[in-house]
Write a structure and sequence with these properties.
Strands 1-2 form a two-stranded antiparallel sheet. It contains three helices and two strands, in the order ααβαβ. The protein has two domains: about 55 residues; about 30 residues, no CATH class.
């Protein structure tokens, strides 16, 4: 995959923490930082999806009740496997 070089300025404390973490994981600072940034990007994307889902719930009042999810999961692998539960108005 093509790579792009990004230069960032870190304060001394964060730079030292990054160096120590990379050393503990037995990887280069660059490799460790790239993995950390990739994980942070995924975390932000997941957070944005969760925020959007919650905003949709607030707008519509619809969600999937946990009891319905639990019943569905318990049915997995049985002869009477249930279809995924649907959104409905919740109290």
């Amino acid at each position: 995959m093509p790579q792009t070089r990004v230069v960032i300025d870190l304060d001394e404390e964060l730079a030292a923490g990054l160096e120590a973490a990379a050393k503990r994981s037995k990887t280069s600072i660059e490799g460790f930082a790239a993995k950390a940034v990739a994980r942070a990007v995924v975390d932000v994307e997941v957070w944005a999806e969760e925020e959007a889902a919650y905003a949709d719930y607030e707008r519509t009042g619809e969600a999937i009740p946990i009891a319905a999810v639990e019943q569905w999961v318990r049915s997995w692998g049985t002869d009477n496997e249930l279809p995924p539960p649907l959104h409905c108005k919740v109290a």
